[in-house]
User: What shape does this take?
Amino acid sequence: MEKFNTFKGIAAPFNILNVDTDKIIPKQFLTTIKRTGLGKHVFDEMRYKKDGLENPNFVLNQKPYDKSNILIAGDNFGCGSSREHAPWALKDFGIKCIISTSFADIFYNNSFKNGLLPIMVTKDERDALLEDAKDKENPEIEIDLENQEIRRPNGGKIKFKIDPFRKKCLLEGLDDIGLTELHENKIKSFEESRSTKHPWL
Amino acid sequence: MSKTLYDKIWQSHLINEQDDGTSLIYIDRHLVHEVTSPQAFEGLRLSNRKVNSPKRTLAVADHNVPTLDRDLGIKEEDSRIQVEELDKNVEEFQIPYFNMNDTRQGIVHVIGPEQGFTQPGMTIVCGDSHTATHGAFGSLAFGIGTSEVEHVLATQTLIQKKAMNMLINITGNLDKIVTSKDLILYIIGKIGTAGGTGCVIEYSGNALRDMSMESRMTICNMSIEAGARAGMIAPDDTTFNYLYEKPMAPKNGDWDKAVNWWKTLPSDSGAKFDKIVDIDATKVTQTITWGTSPEEIVSIDGTVPNPNKISDEVKQNKIKRSIEYMGLTPGQKISDVEINTVFIGSCTNSRIEDIRSAAEIIKGKKVSTNVKALVVPGSGLVKKQAEEEGLDVIFKHAGFEWREPGCSMCLAMNSDKLNEGDRCASTSNRNFEGRQGKGGRTHLVSPEIAAASAITGKLTDPRNVT
Assistant: This one.
């Protein structure tokens, strides 16, 4: 996985409640057997009109948000299915970080596996960032994972918490499977003792 | 120290725990389907890894499969490629597989319990959020993403952090007419779609003890709609009786050993829960959804809400949007709403008891002329059982289509989908915008209400169909 470096990017205001994974990437695009190429379909039903043209009222179709790297999102972002196509599609569009008050568990988990950083902040902080993002002239926000800091356009800073293991994996671009394989002996002995105790498992 | 059911399963699967709580847990069972696995198998190939434990893995194609003319194969190219990819992957990695033409094929969350692959005390995962279903057996079962599917295939473990313990305690008894689908929709309405976020829910109470395994599965299945990754119900004699002599259940001397161990699993008295919610079963009515989130519920005799009565602006906007998408008006009686499609199926409600309950209402009646109605049994074995009982004849005679098993119109990845503006009474689990087809409108209902609605062409209380 690519290392997650500090970056400055355009933040889009996306204050919709309970954005579900069907909304992020509808099922007609789940038949892919690849991880890439879903960016053009992200938020398909909101993004395109019935005739297939872009819906000009949708925020990610508007300048400068069509080049967004950050979403400032509504509560409970990513609820619904376990499809990892949701973070794949967001990442492929160019989103590297989503800031909200809360995320659905599986989406939250899937994001980290794909170098997409979900940040949880308080409602007041999220609302302040929404106001920042609404300023089309200057919607750029800096994300510094190392120092766990969001730097606002006005120079203000918002600190955030993150699980230290997940932080390390993102910063160093670590592969989970490789890390787990370091415990190979422990796994084997666990399996053996389990097979003796509960052979039907 | 007193432990919850979840604590016990977690601790007995813990291989390693770091200081920050990041843990490596062992996975007993892994269910695999065609949609969330191709990239995982590709990852294994690229890194030259093998499947660690094929015998703990079971694969099936369910999301994309056609429910009509199956012998003609899959018409849609993308879907066909995805299923063919699974065919190739299971062969290359030597994974047990029920292919599309196997009688045991069906929805992944129907076949696991049906085969006895699902058992109490296990950790069970699948690249599918409705894996929560298997928690009805007192197992820890949850949905994972494709990267985690690859992780489990390669190592038979997962990196996790322990979730919080949440207890949903159901006091009192349910009215006879109220089903487990009504109960779970009511619970989601109470706690909201984020109510269980970060938690594993344990459901308890006498009302659950009286329920069959199939009803319990309906409840655990929709835990994810309440935001929880997993829902569980302590195993009891109902669980053991269900599993006895299932093809993959413990055999001979192992059976007694297994049952003795399973009996130790229920939460100890005095076990600590981080959150407790009490639900008064006597207040639960026949519940359906009116909107586009599973928390947007209404009693079958209720009305569409008025958004102007909600002060929070973001919530008000969400409700306005739901009403607009659903083509309803505030204050409208829900039983006046006309439907043109009925779907009886999905991992929530496609088991034999669901089909029997619907057939009971349909018997001797006709589907309304404006309604297209289909029954999609959860598995080939459910279909066979229903046919042996003559239920298919009841449905066909009434004007229902009797289909082959699969996920079908629950998420409309195959050709079973709603058209723009269609309105469906569906026994599935999600009513998100476009879920059953772009522009389609979904009301989540019990099999009984689905059946009654098919006859009248409106969302209908089964008691009003005589």
Q: What stands out?
A: Residues 184-197 of chain A form the longest helix (14 residues). The CA atoms of residues 101 and 123 of chain A lie 6 Å apart. The radius of gyration of chain A is 19 Å.
